[in-house]
Amino acid sequence: MNLKELKEKFKKALLDARGICDEVDKAERDFSVEERTKLSGHLEEAGKLKKQIVELEGDAEMRKQILAIGEGLDLGGKGEGGGGTQSPPGRGPSAGSGRGPSAGSERGKTIGQRFVESEAIQAWLKHVGPSGRIPESAKGLISPPVEFKDLLTGVSDTSAGAFVQTDYTGIYEALGRQLLTLRQMISLRQTTSDLVEFVRQTQIVQEAAPVPEANVNDYAGATGEVSGEKPEGATAFEKVTAAVKTIAVWIPATKRALSDASQIRGIIDQELREDLEEELEDQLINGNGVGENFTGILNTAGILAQAWNTDILTTSRQAKTTLQVTGRARPTAWLINPSDWETIELLQDANNRYYWGGPLSNGAPRLWGVPIIESETIAQGTGLLGDFRKAILWDRERASIQVSDSHADFFIRNMVAILAEMRAAFGLIRPSAFIAVDFESGS
Q1: Of 94, 149, 368, 432, which sits 20 to 30 A from 194 (CA to CA)?
Q2: Backbone angles phi, psi at 250, to 5 degrees
Q3: For the chain, how long is the longest CA-to-CA vector?
Q4: Strand 236-243 to strand 304-306: parallel, antiparallel, or no bridges (unpaired)?
Q5: 104: DSSP letter
Q6: What whole-number distance in Å separates Cα of residue 254 and Cα of residue 258?
Q7: Is residue 342 very low, low, confident or very high in pLDDT (cuts 50, 70, 90)?
C-alpha cells in the first residue's frame, strides 16, 4: 500500500470515529457498549495507519537527503537503470560555478586540491596575474566562492547537523528579588486565633514629687500646717485588636509540565514563597489598614515624625534625639532606602574626604551610632528610625503551598492551580518607639 492510499484510509478511520462522537453529542447521551467498541477500533486502526505513514514519509526524506548529499558525485550508477545519482539538467561539470571539471575526476582528491584546481579559481588566478600566480605586491584580494556540495557539515539538519545534540546544562538563573530585612528585625510570635489583642499604655505616671513630713494630726489648711499627703499618680491604657490577614498568590500550570520537568515545581514554589515575603514586608512598612491590608509602621497612629532641617545629617541626628526624649526609646536600627544611604555615604567634608571612610571602608554601616538596614521597600526620601522590637508579627499560618485541579475547568484541561498563602497579624505595641524622618528638603 502506497503513501496516498494509507492517508486515505487514515482519514476515513478518523471520520468514522468523529461520526460516532457527533451522533452521541447530538442525542445528548453516553456512548453505548457497541459504540465504544467501534470507536476504539477506529482509533486503533488510525494509530497503526499513522505509524505506517510516518515510516514511509521518513523513508522518502532519507532518499532526498541521500540525493542531496551525493549531488555532483559519481556514485557508480549508470544512468537511470543503474540507480546512480546524476547531475540535474544544466548543472553538469561545465555548468557549475567552481565545482571542478567533472564529478568523477574529483574522487581521491583533497579539498585543497579541488579548490585550487577548480575552474573558478583558475580563471581568477589568470585575471589577477598574467602568469597565473598572485604577485607579491597584490593586496585586498578576494577569491570567488567554490562550492563543495558533497561535504558533511554540522550546520545543516540534513547533514552532520542532524546528529548534533543540545547540551542541556540544567542551570537556572532567576531574575533576582530585593533583599528582605524587616522580618529579621521585628519580634515574632505565634497565634491560633483570628484576632490578637494586646494592651498599649497611652499615659505614663508623671506625678511623683518630694513630700514633707506632716506636722499636724488633723490637717485643716491653716497657715504653717503640713499635711504630708503623697501625690496621686495616674496612667491610662487601651486595648488594641489586630486581625489576622491573608496574603496569597497562585499560578496555573499543566500536569504534563510538572511531570516532565522535575525542576519546574521547585522553581514555582520558590517564586510564590518569595512573592509572599516581598508583599508581607511591604505591608509591614507601608500597609494602609484599608480592607485586608495590614496597618504598616508608617501608617500607625502615634509614631513620631521628624521634619527636614538644614541637611540630612542634622535632620537624622535630631530624629535620634526626638526618639530618645519624646518617645523614650533606644533605637535598634535605621531603615533607609539604598538611594538615600548612597547619598549619605557620598557626603564629603571641605577637603573632599568622605565622612564614612569612602569606598575602602569595611566596617558595618552606622548613622549616629545606630546600625543601617537598607531596604527598597521604604520609599526614597523617607527614613525610619526605631526600636524594632516593639513591632510584633503574629504568625497564624506560615507560608504554605497547595495544588488543586478544582479551579474553573482545570480538571478537564489537565491543569492545576498552585497556590501559596500565609496568614498573620501585625501591630506596634509602642508606636512612639518609631519615628519617620524626612530626608528631602521641601518634601
Answers
A1: 432
A2: -140, 165
A3: 146
A4: unpaired
A5: G
A6: 7
A7: very high
Residue showing cell 545629617? 313
Cα 182 from Cα 165, distance rounded (Å)? 47
Distance CA 419, CA 403 (A): 6
Instruction: Provide the 3-class DSSP secondary structure of residue 426.
Output: strand
Average pLDDT over residues 284-305: 96
- Give residue 148's identity as a one-letter amino acid code: F
CA distance 380 to 340: 6
Among 430, 425, 432, which residue's Cα sits nearest to residue 199? 430
Query: Hey, how many other C-beta atoms are within 10 angstroms of the C-beta on 381?
Result: 15
Cα–Cα distance for residue pair 206/208, rounded to 1 Å: 6
Helix (H, G, I), strand (E, B) or coil at 419: strand
What are residue 333's DSSP bridge partners? 386
Inform me whether the pLDDT recorded for 424 exceeds 60: yes
Give the pLDDT confidence of 175-185 residue by residue, as tens digits: 767 777 788 88
Please list, in sequence order, all residues whose beta carbon lies within 8 angstroms of the beta carbon of residue 22, skipping any fewer than 6 positions away.
Answer: none
What global pTM score does this model have? 0.59
Q: Pairing between strand 304-306 and 245-254?
A: unpaired
How many Cβ atoms are within 10 Å of 213's Cβ, its own excluded? 6
Tell me the one-letter amino acid at 179.
L
CB 283 within 8 A of CB 423: no
374-423 pLDDT, tens per residue? Answer: 999 999 999 999 999 999 999 999 888 888 999 889 988 999 999 999 99
| Contact of 375 with 336, CB cutoff 8 Å | yes
Cell of 150: 558533497
CA dist list (Å): 294 to 250, 378, 394, 425, 431? 20, 15, 12, 8, 15
Q: What are phi and psi of 217, to 5 degrees?
A: -80, -45
Residue for grid cell 570567488: 144
Cell 521547585 locates to: 266
* Cell 521628624 -> residue: 306
What gap in Å lies between CA 378 and CA 365, rounded to an integer?
Answer: 18
Kindly list the domain boundaries of the chain, sorted by start residue: 3-69, 104-163, 246-438
Query: What are the DSSP calls for 121-177, one per residue?
Result: HHHHHHHH-TTSS--TT--S--PPP---TT---SS-TTTGGGG--------------
